[in-house]
Amino acid sequence: MKNDLKISHIQLRALIISAVIGVGIISLPNDLANILEKDGWILIVLSALLIFPIIFMINHIFKINPGKDYFQIGEETLGKVIFTICKLLFLAYLIVYCSYEVAILSQLIKAFLLHITPVEIIIFLFVLTSVYISSMEIDIIARAGYFIYPIILIFAGIFFFISLPTADFSNVLPAFQSNFKNIPRGIVSTFFSFTGFEVLLFALPYVEDKKKALKSSMIALGIITFIYLLMFFTTLTQFYLKQLQGQNFSLVMIAKTVDLPGYFLQNLDGVVMAIWILVVFATFAPAFFGAGKILSNTFRTKSHKYFLLGLVPVIYYLALVPKDYIELQRDMLKILNILSFLSIVVIPFLIFIVGIIKRRIKA
Amino acid sequence: MIKTVSKDIDENLKYIKEVLKGSSDLVIREFEIGDVFRIKMATIYIDGLSSKEFVSQFAIGSLFKEEELKSFTLEGYKTSILDAIKKDGLSAADISEKEDFEEIITDILSGETILFINHSTKAIKIATKEFPARGIDEPKTESLVRGPREGFVESLRFNTALVRRRIRDKGLNIEMYQIGKRSKTDIALLFIEDIVDPKFLIEVRKRLDAIDIDAIIDSSTLEYLIEDNYLSPFPQIENTERPDSVSASLYEGRVSLIVDGSPFVLVLPATIGTLLNSSEDYYSRWIEASAKRILRLISVVLILFPSALYVAITVYHPSILPTKLSYYLAASRINVPFPALVEAIMMESTMELLRESGTRLSGPIGTTIGIVGGLIIGQAAVEAGIVSPLMIIIVAISSIATFAVPSYELSTALRLFKFILIVCSGVLGLFGLMLGVILTGTHILSLNSFGIPFSSPYSGLGIEEGDLKDTFVKAPLKRLWLRPGFTFPKNKKRMKEGKKHEK
């Protein structure tokens, strides 16, 4: 059988969830607490509501252009020159995104797992390992997403339950005491926690059941929001606000402090880190794949394999640019936020609007 | 060089003798029949492949006895002698006419008897195939507590009969192929026409037709020729010795290939889900079977991870363990002169060595190897302080776990990856282990078995159809009223939706 690419809508759902939940989840509760204190959950809900129309838009683009991939649609609606600029922006975003992910990963692994191994080796090996799966087609990546998806769900569940005995629910209250002027600033930074759904642009043309695709991506968004909320409240019930604000990696800290009854397992931070490597991998691989696909589309080659090998040193050097965690979070994230906003909100929006206008003119 | 049977019998015989001149087991019996006109005839067969008794009694004997042939006169030439012989000269059950010498020689070599008649441009093939074969026996590799005790044997016809006896289905197709340019091995393709996905069948036929090899000796040869990724250590085609398992998989919309000369029948497509199923699951109660299936999945984890985790934890992350256990671990390793990586690889290799030597030896000596290996070497190694006792326990558990995986090929592949993971975690601890998992996982995910994802159903295909009910666990039979979805069966329903009989 000629292996024509096919993704079921269930796989699409899993792919989105595993592609969105990534490095961000470990520091998300802390970020939220810093911006909006105990009302951080408002930001999660608001961001999800903002993402909602974008996902709808992307689905709509593919619905009115059946059988075409993102590049064909973009070229036809925006014209070759403009879309090439768009592609370059998208490429830049994906590369920076990959470097950011792997930079954070290396920082955390150095802090929690391998104290003396140089970050260079960690970064290089991780990127090199990902070349294998990213050089395959989207259906294989979707299968990987389906494998990681239950791991994320199970671990979110386990996390919640092991922290139940020490949870102090009075920490959640009082609500609505924070400074709501911070909301716009907060949304800009929580929006990044939801990036990753741009994998839709590569996956949607191959989804078998187009009608269910929209529903599935919405369910995925719902599950992601739920997991983020669960993680936020779990950490909030574990720490006082000031404690939470001072802890960059609150989820790992919970794992470190939790003691299971019977003392069979202590110090779960290592285990959590190990699982988290898989979770980061599942966000990294689709983005890396996307970067390779953009390059192979620009240079009109059949396979994107060799571009990936070419991207390895690029990502490696970019990931080493920020000197420490603070620089990483402050400067790189700022660039990344702008790029992500341009390439996954503005460009699809342009295609969407221009597509509608062109259609009107024709009719 | 003649292509078809000539009128002159001597020429035909000369040709046969010329072609098969190296075959000392060729038997040619020439004789003449008829009182009035003597007609020269000859039977040809291979000694040992054909039933001598059958040839003498029902072919030659009946020709001699037939009165009409004896009194064959000139009038007889109105109907050809060939027809006369076919009509009442032969009492054998299965005969047919042959012209082409290529076919005739293949027939002779596969055990049929060929009857040449003078003045006739056609020869008669008499089905006399009978060769020494092993009787039907209990399958050696897949024994069950409850379930049929029959196993496949080496001869193809017995095997198709074993399947046909279980399925009196008019939809059951048995397509014959002769593959192997020289060996001309018979291969049967079995499927149920109104269940199997036609696209899948086309692909199987295409791959069979594309085979270009001189000889196929065993079904494994065929397996390696038609599988998707021949570089992978994972088996992408299932093999079984059990006719019941083949019959059941035909009803799942799968296809099976029987190769003459091999008691292992191929079943395809194979996925992780099917490779971890045993036919015992279907003969025991659902809750027990479900527990066993989950246990098997755990055993996969136990094959892959314990040694690698041991290495990663002792070398890089002793803090993961509870304090007491971590002290105990350090204390047990205090006399061990090797790094954990060397220790683990040493012990795992010893285990592989024991297994390899054990499988080559039969019965009592094999047991000795087990005792010497397991008890003496293990005990002595700990006392000598070369390895820690925990390592012995881990190696023992993970090698016991390999026997819980029903597919031998799958467990072999997993054992190979175990070594890779040990090395990965020896180099970079848990991070290395995870990189190893990613690489292994990617490889498994990238595999296809005839276009069907090898990792199904755990990678998404067939989830909606409820394949997890018959792979991850085994639901009660009444709940399995749909065929599994991963084969895209044409006919999805197995039975009516189940209800309890309670009032």
What distance separates the N and C termini of chain A? 41 Å
Query: How many independent structural domains of chain B?
Result: 3
Q: Classify the fold: give the CATH topology of chain A.
A: Amino acid/polyamine transporter I
Q: How many helical stretches of chain A?
A: 15
Shape of chain B: elongated
Helical content of chain A stands at over 70%
What multimeric state do the chains show?
Answer: heterodimer
**Sheet with the most strands of chain A?**
none
Radius of gyration of chain A: 20 Å
Characterise this structure.
The complex is a heterodimer of chains A (363) and B (503). Helix content of chain A is 77%, strand content 0%. Chain A has helices at residues 9-20, 24-36, 40-64, 70-78, 80-112, 119-134, 138-163, 183-194, 199-203, 210-238, 241-246, 250-257, 269-298, 305-320, 325-362. Chain A is globular. The model of chain A has no long low-confidence stretch (mean pLDDT 86). Chain B is of the alpha+beta class. Chain B has 3 domains: 9-126, no CATH class; 156-270, no CATH class; 292-453, no CATH class. In chain B, 45% of the residues lie in helices and 12% in strands. Chain B has a 5-stranded antiparallel β-sheet, with helices on both faces. In chain B, strands 6-7-9-10-8 form a 5-stranded antiparallel β-sheet, with helices on both faces. A two-stranded antiparallel ribbon of chain B has the order 11-12. The N and C termini of chain B lie far apart (80 Å). At the A-B interface, helix 1, helix 6, helix 7 and helix 13 of A face helix 7 and helix 17 of B.
